[in-house]
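Workshop exercise sheet. Pairs work together: one partner reads the sequence aloud, the other fills in the structure field after running the prediction. Swap roles for the next sheet.
Pair: D.N. / O.F.
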Amino acid sequence: MRYLDVDGFPRLGRVGLGTWQFGSRQWGYGDAYAAVTARALVGRALELGVTLFDTAEVYGGGRSEQILGQALGADAARVVVATKFAPVFPLAKVVKKHANASRARLGIDRIGLYQAHFPNPLFGMDTTMQGLAELRDEKVVDEVGVSNYDLARWRRAEHALGSRVLSNQVEFSLVRPDALETLVPWAEAHGRVVIAYGPLAQGLLGCRYDAYNPPSGFRSRSRDFRAGNLRRVQPLLELVQEIAAAHHATPAQIALAWTLHSGPVVAIPGASSVEQLEQNVAAADIALADDEYTALTAQARRPARKPRRFGRRLRAHEAAGA
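Structure field:
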């Protein structure tokens, strides 16, 4: 495992564990996943050196936090537990209430990284950040982060907080490369971190699906798996497979390696099995050649779609896997 050194903060393994699927029935994993597989995943992640475990109060209606907290147990004190609150009504007393509820579900005294799950344009940034500043000053929260913010909002959040907003968690992958334009360069210049959710585009970058072999179930409802998009990304998927063969790696590992190669980025893919978790973590040690990274980036940036604007709409982020 390679690590990202952040001033004044624990070392972050370049691959963390996203736990949206813990407690969620959308993926069809069943009750045994939460009772058995989730615990096995967390245990193996700790053995492999994973130090960032990400969840949110909306994942599974709080079940993700409960399952993660139970699986970590006393080990929560030696890793970074990150969670997110939905800033629907982000007055300070409400934000603090949400934080305390998350702490109770997680079974921890302090939240390593507490993140606003999405921007709320109906409230000023000072309002949203006030509760977070108080939580940090009261040592309930170690670091403040945001999610789905564009660069302008990220910078305004820092100004309102009066100190660094350590991270911005955004959808970032070869299929969604927009963070390369502003967020990643700014993070690199200022000692901040981009946390990449959806780094495998819900499995699209695993190269199991194409226009002739579309997925079923939850994935079939995603815009990324529509026939037209599957045809559009075929050249990208073929390039990923070519580079994977050269590295004796899986396509998913190459997709993750590209994300990490981009700058101060930590990826938080989910995992349906311990084997998948192990493959994800191993991707942190794959070193892409400069020409491989450049070719993948050029293919990812093909202007065939409108760029994603982080925080454009106030919406239900669990549906997007945020």
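Discussion prompt: The radius of gyration is 19 Å. What would you look at next?
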